Amino acid sequence: MKLTDHQIEEVQRQTGGLPIPESSTEFEILRGAFGDDSFYAATTGIIVWEWKEDHLAPVREAVAVQVATWRNRDAFEIVKIPRRRTQAVIRLPVSGIGIRSG
After folding, report:
1. Which of 11, 55, 61, 70 has a CA positioned 20 to 30 A from the CA of residue 91?
2. What element of type H or E holds 69?
3. For residue 78, how many C-alpha atoms fall within 13 Å in the half-sphere facing its CB?
4. What's residue 64's pLDDT?
5. How far apart (Å, rounded) are the C-alpha atoms in residues 71 and 32?
6. Alpha carbons 57 and 88: distance in angstroms, whole number
C-alpha cells in the first residue's frame, strides 16, 4: 500500500526503516513491476506494508509483505516472487493521525 507521511514516520519509529525514495530510479523500477506502493529494502529483498485485517479502526496492524528477493543487492537486481507475508507486524494509523503512547 502507499503510505502517508505519518505512516512512514511510524514505520521508521518502529523499525528504523525508510522507504526507497520516490525520486529514485529504483522506485520507478519497483512501481513498474508492483504498482504504486511504498517500498522498503530489507536484507531478504523488497517489502511493502499491507493491513493485517480489513476491519476499520483509527490504528491497526500492518504486516510486511515480501514482493522480491535480491539477485544482486549492490546492483539493485531483484527477482519478483509471489507476495509472501512475513512475521513483521507494526501498528499504523489509518489516516493522517499519529499514534499516541499510553
Report:
1. 70
2. strand 59-72
3. 24
4. 96
5. 18
6. 20
Residue 12: other Cβ atoms inside 10 A: 12
The owner of cell 508492483 is: 34
- Positive or negative, the CA dihedral 21, 88, 95, 56 is positive
| Cell 519497483 -> residue | 30
Supply 45's cell numbers: 529483498
Q: From residue 17, how far is each of 49, 56, 72, 76, 87 by CA, in Å?
A: 12, 25, 20, 17, 16
Q: What digits encode the pLDDT tens for the residues 27-84?
A: 999 999 999 999 999 999 999 999 987 666 667 899 999 999 999 988 889 999 999 9
Helix (H) or strand (E) holding 1: none
Which residues, 6+ apart, have CB-to-CB distance to 27 below 8 Å? Answer: 20, 21, 39
At residue 94 the predicted structure's pLDDT band, cuts being 50, 70 and 90, is: confident
pTM for the whole thing? 0.84
Q: Helix (H, G, I), strand (E, B), or coil: what is residue 76?
A: coil
